[in-house]
Design goal:
Layout lengths: L1 H27 L11 H14 L12 E4 L2 E13 L2 E8 L8 E5 L11 H7 L4 E7 L14 H15 L4 E5 L3 H13 L8 E5 L11 H8 L2 H7 L2 E2 L10 E3 L1 H11 L1 H16 L3 H14 L5 E2 H13 L2 H4 L3 E2 L2 E2 L9 E7 L12 H4 L9 E6 L11 H18 L1
Parallel strand pairs: 4-5, 4-6, 6-7, 7-13, 13-14
Antiparallel strand pairs: 1-2, 2-3, 3-5, 8-9, 9-10, 11-12
Helix pairs in contact: 1-2, 2-9, 3-14, 4-5, 9-10
């Protein structure tokens, strides 16, 4: 009944949001007297904040039409180059970029948010690269006849996408996919695959969650896997294409993330209210834009979620050397050709310091000259791949590393 209760609540809040939006417009309409009466502007601002906070959000559009470089705006062409049931491969390319420009695969997290959360990451790398990005599907919209999707399938998708891009490409894994992309890289190095990435950048990834464990890690360790199976897995209702599929709902992941920093989220909305009250629409819109993306969530297949919890957070399979793919143990010592860059945020409360850096210690046969670690001072988890620190400090490190090993 979990999903049905959520749908009922969403339906009610959607109506409340609509009425609040209408009320805000009436109270702020200059043709009506309400906006000139005492509490009118304040009430309008409060209703607008409520309307935005309770609105229903679907999958956002990428909306990358141009990219700025050297003071000019360059047109960008977006295309879907591989279409698969559980995720597409998108390509973004500057129209005036040289044909031999380096190619970068950005593997987006499958952790409750759509890949568009990495819009800022893609925009920055588009300045100098042809960028490919994994655009994962919302599991509730994938029909049951398409089968299941777990960590093995995730790694297969990554390998297939790299094969489509061709030899000489580079890869970047943001957060959760650091584990399966790291493993896929080991598989391709072991097999001498010509499409193995030249470099792999892992950003805020849970390679070894025993290092500086966060509240996310503690939650996964406190309860047995059966608790997750019986308490957070739901069945997709009949109104969706994936009806009957077992999923970990995106709304539960969002609730978890919101509760971790509830005070900060409340202050953000209070600041938005104050900006609206004094007529600072630009500042209020910036907050709205962030939450439009942040509250757009998607479901994960139950098998992928449960396997990730067990293998990554409970059994620590990667650092323990017991991680498997299609029945074969993955040996990270096989990585000898792909250069590795590990990036962490000093204030990351999702993947603690040392969790991503552990990847460099788990590859004994990779020459030290092909390893690099970078800690972004003052950056939280989101700031590693979005915002001013990403654009001005972190991205140049990635570009320098790719150029050195490309």
């Amino acid at each position: 009944m979990l999903y049905h209760v959520h749908e009922l609540q969403k339906s009610w809040l959607s109506g409340a949001s609509t009425w609040a939006s209408i009320g805000a417009e009436m109270l702020s309409n200059p043709a009506l007297p309400f906006g000139y009466m005492g509490m009118g502007p304040m009430a309008a601002s409060a209703l607008e904040v409520f309307a935005h906070a309770t609105a229903t959000y679907g999958k956002p559009a990428w909306g990358i039409e141009t990219v700025e470089k050297d003071g000019r705006h360059h047109p960008v062409v977006e295309a879907t180059v591989v279409n698969k049931p559980f995720g597409d491969l998108k390509r973004f390319r500057r129209e005036d970029l040289p044909e031999d420009a380096p190619r970068l695969l950005i593997v987006a997290p499958m952790s409750g948010h759509f890949a568009t959360l990495l819009r800022g990451t893609v925009e920055r790398m588009l300045q100098n690269y042809t960028v490919y990005v994994t655009d994962w599907a919302d599991a509730r919209n994938v029909p049951l006849h398409e089968g299941h999707f777990d960590l093995d399938d995730y790694m297969d998708y990554v390998i297939e996408f790299l094969e489509h891009i061709g030899p000489g490409a580079h890869a970047m894994a943001v957060c959760q996919p650091s584990v399966p992309v790291f493993a896929a890289t080991a598989i391709m190095n072991r097999d001498g695959h010509e499409c193995a990435p030249k470099t792999l950048t892992m950003m805020g990834g849970p390679i070894d969650t025993r290092c500086s464990p966060t509240s996310v890690n503690d939650l996964a360790m406190e309860r047995p896997i059966e608790w997750f199976r019986h308490n957070v897995i739901a069945t997709v209702p009949m109104q969706y294409r994936g009806a009957g599929r077992q999923v970990y709902p995106g709304f539960m992941q969002l609730a978890g993330f919101m509760s971790m920093n509830l005070g900060n989220h409340m202050m953000s909305h209070y600041e938005m209210f104050k900006h609206l009250t004094v007529g600072d629409e630009a500042s209020a819109q910036a907050t709205k834009d962030f939450y439009d993306e942040y509250r757009s969530v998607c479901d994960m297949t139950a098998e992928f979620y449960l396997q990730t919890v067990q293998e990554v957070f409970q059994d620590h399979s990667i650092p323990n050397g017991t991680f498997m793919h299609r029945g074969k143990r993955i040996d990270l010592g096989d990585i000898t050709g792909t250069a590795l860059l590990a990036i962490e945020g000093e204030r990351d409360d999702i993947s603690g310091l040392g969790q991503t850096r552990a990847a460099l210690e788990l590859t004994p046969n990779l020459d030290a000259s092909k390893k690099r670690y970078y800690m972004a001072e003052g950056a939280g988890h989101y700031g590693i791949f979005n915002g001013s620190k990403w654009r001005g400090k972190i991205a140049p490190v990635v570009e320098e590393f790719i150029a050195a090993h490309g």
